């Protein structure tokens, strides 16, 4: 009987955040935000996000859409990935400029 009660509860609630459509919407919002970051990279960042990510005010709307479309844990994960990628890229760029070739 307990199993039947659990089955009836779980069939009524579908978590849309794990479905493929919601996942794709999250990826689109994420990509739009990071594209805005790349496009506006020459402007001074004034807004703050998770893990110390700074972004310009021009990207505020895309950031809000990104945060609304994705789970908070995903947003933190993607922000960490982006910051790590940028840190590595910055280190590689610095090493190339120091070679004196």
Automatic annotation (TrEMBL):
<keyword id="KW-1015">Disulfide bond</keyword>
<protein>
    <submittedName>
        <fullName>Cytochrome</fullName>
    </submittedName>
</protein>
<dbReference type="InterPro" id="IPR036549">
    <property type="entry name" value="CX6/COA6-like_sf"/>
</dbReference>
<dbReference type="InterPro" id="IPR048282">
    <property type="entry name" value="COA6_pln"/>
</dbReference>
<dbReference type="InterPro" id="IPR048280">
    <property type="entry name" value="COX6B-like"/>
</dbReference>
<keyword id="KW-0496">Mitochondrion</keyword>
<dbReference type="GO" id="GO:0005739">
    <property type="term" value="C:mitochondrion"/>
</dbReference>
<dbReference type="Pfam" id="PF02297">
    <property type="entry name" value="COX6B"/>
</dbReference>
């Amino acid at each position: 009987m307990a199993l039947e009660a659990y089955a009836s509860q779980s069939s009524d609630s579908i978590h849309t955040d794990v479905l493929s459509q919601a996942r794709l919407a999250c990826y689109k919002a994420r990509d739009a935000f990071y594209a805005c970051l790349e496009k506006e990279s020459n402007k001074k960042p004034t807004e703050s996000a998770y893990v110390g990510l700074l972004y310009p005010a021009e990207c505020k709307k895309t950031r809000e859409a990104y945060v609304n479309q994705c789970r908070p844990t995903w947003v933190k994960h993607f922000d960490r990935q982006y910051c790590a990628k940028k840190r590595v890229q910055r280190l590689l760029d610095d090493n190339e400029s120091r070679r004196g070739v």
